Amino acid sequence: MDSKKHSNFTGSKADINREVGGKFTAYDGWIQGINIQLVPDKKIVQSWRGNDWPENHYSKTTFFLRKIKNGTKLTFTQTGVPIEFYKDIFDGWIEHYWNKMKKL
Question: Distances in Å between the alpha carbon of 52 and those of 29, 32, 58?
Answer without folding.
Answer: 11, 11, 11
